[in-house]
Every structure is written in C-alpha cells, then in structure tokens.
Amino acid sequence: MDDQLDDMDLRILGVLQRRGRMSNADLADKVHLSPSACHRRVQRLEKEGFIKDYVALLDPRAMGYPTIVFVEITLSGQADELLAAFEREVSLVPEVLECHLMAGKADYILKVVARDTDDFARVHRQKLASLPGVLGMQSSFALRTVFKTTALPT
C-alpha cells in the first residue's frame, strides 16, 4: 500500500468503492469528517490516481447476458508484436469483460458474457477464434456466481 494514504483516506476509499454514488455530505458523515475536508481528500485521491473512475455496475442478467464463460487462450508464440496485436484486438470484442495475461498453462484468460450457449458459440467462432495468434482455446462455463465484488481491501 502507498505511504501517501492515511487511515482516513482508506476509510473514504472503502466507502466509495462500495457506494460511489453517495453525496459528499453523506460520505463525510460516514467517515466522521467535515464535508469540506472530505471533499478536498476525495479530490486529492482522484488527482493522485487512487480513484480511477466512477461507473454504474449493471446486472448482466437484467441486461440479457446471464452466461459467464472463462476462456483460456493459448497463442502460437510469445513475440511482443503478437501479444500487442492480440491485446489490441481482444479489447474491441464487447462481450469480453476482462483479459488477463497469465503465467502458467494459458497465455491469457478472458471473462466473456453471452446471452446463452448459442450466443457464446457465435462469439467463440466469429470473434475469439479470429484473434491474432490464437492457437487454442479452453472454455469453462460458470454455473453460478457465488459472490462478486469490485472492492479492493483497504
């Protein structure tokens, strides 16, 4: 953890990453700080890059994407140009929510959403299989999400 963060900063970050839409007055009350001091701290945390962005987290099921698939990708090589080309192109596939470069069996692991298994088959065939350098893919379907969070430990 960064030495620039004190206990109050950590409390602010902890609250914001669980309820980012609350007003500054509510946040200040929750962390026991004056609204003006809280606002200054939040602005500093944004400026210094600790707070990256504010987003609305959508429910995949409500949006028609109840199927979550984790796809292990093996590439035909490890050249920087191939990795860069793959990363550039995979970032353009809207069904891919996450892409992680891995150490181990797979080169990349993707988190993909789909409307159903037929929709995933289409994404697999039309989009993933045509990505630069793809040699092999292994897909695992999530049966149920036990829990999910975007909140980092503070």
Mean pLDDT: 95
Largest sheet: 4 strands, antiparallel
Uncertain segments: none
Rg computed from alpha carbons, rounded to a whole number of angstroms: 20 Å
Return the CATH architecture of the largest domain: 2-Layer Sandwich
Work out the number of β strands.
4
Q: CATH superfamily of the largest domain, called what?
A: Lrp/AsnC effector binding domain/regulation of amino acid metabolism (RAM) domain
Estimated share of beta-strand residues: 15-25%
Give a verbal description of the structure.
With 154 residues, the chain is an alpha+beta fold. It folds into 2 domains: 41 residues, Winged helix-like DNA-binding domain superfamily/Winged helix DNA-binding domain (Arc Repressor Mutant, subunit A, Orthogonal Bundle); 75 residues, Lrp/AsnC effector binding domain/regulation of amino acid metabolism (RAM) domain (Alpha-Beta Plaits). It has 5 helices and 4 strands; from the N terminus they run H-H-H-E-H-E-E-H-E. The chain has a 4-stranded antiparallel β-sheet with strand order 2-3-1-4. Helix 1 crosses helix 2 and helix 2 packs across helix 3. The protein is elongated. The N and C termini lie close together (9 Å).
